[in-house]
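User: Let's play a game. I give you a shape written as tokens, and you guess the letters that built it. Ready? Here's round one.
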């Protein structure tokens, strides 16, 4: 069974996007699609990193743990709010912390905002950063406009039928990419150069 790490990117007080992370964990686990864990950047409370993890002489235990969570995941879902047309510095900080861990990692992006556009402006800059790290960003997106109304504090959607329908299409793309990576890894094991 696959394992999915769900990065909850916001560290702000009163954050709303975390509701979407709770929703995806619940949806994945209740439907026995994979194992899922939320990697909550607010709980990690990282300092601003001044160097990539692989180059740090004395990395913190939390930084190593974060890297292991990404490395061990078959796929990653990033849940990020839109802040002034971009994504939070807390997310950029941990994307840049790692390098090899992102290589060929299937990553699906869900954006959110308190307004009607669902964080659409975040996609381009976040995808570009992940592409530079050689991550495999899934083409399907899961934008959430008016997130404060779309999900309650426990991650329950206001319109479960529509949320589950959209999430199903989003997750199908992630699973397709995870299947492709697994197949390629099997192929690499059987080919000797």
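Assistant: Ready! My guess for every position:
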């Amino acid at each position: 069974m696959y394992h999915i790490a769900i990065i909850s990117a916001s560290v702000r007080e009163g954050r709303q996007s975390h509701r979407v992370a709770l929703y995806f964990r619940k949806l994945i686990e209740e439907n026995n699609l994979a194992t899922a864990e939320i990697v909550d950047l607010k709980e990690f409370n990282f300092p601003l990193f001044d160097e990539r993890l692989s180059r740090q002489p004395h990395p913190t235990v939390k930084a190593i743990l974060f890297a292991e969570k990404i490395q061990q995941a078959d796929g990653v879902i990033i849940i990020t709010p839109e802040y002034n047309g971009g994504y939070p510095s807390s997310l950029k900080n941990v994307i840049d912390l790692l390098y090899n861990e992102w290589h060929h990692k299937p990553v699906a992006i869900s954006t959110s905002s308190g307004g009607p556009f669902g964080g659409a402006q975040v996609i381009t800059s976040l995808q570009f950063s992940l592409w530079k790290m050689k991550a495999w960003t899934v083409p399907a997106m899961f934008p959430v406009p008016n997130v404060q109304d779309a999900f309650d504090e426990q991650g329950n959607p206001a319109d479960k039928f529509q949320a589950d329908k959209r999430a199903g299409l989003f997750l199908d793309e992630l699973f397709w990419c995870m299947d492709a990576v697994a197949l390629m890894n099997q192929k690499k094991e059987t080919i000797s150069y």
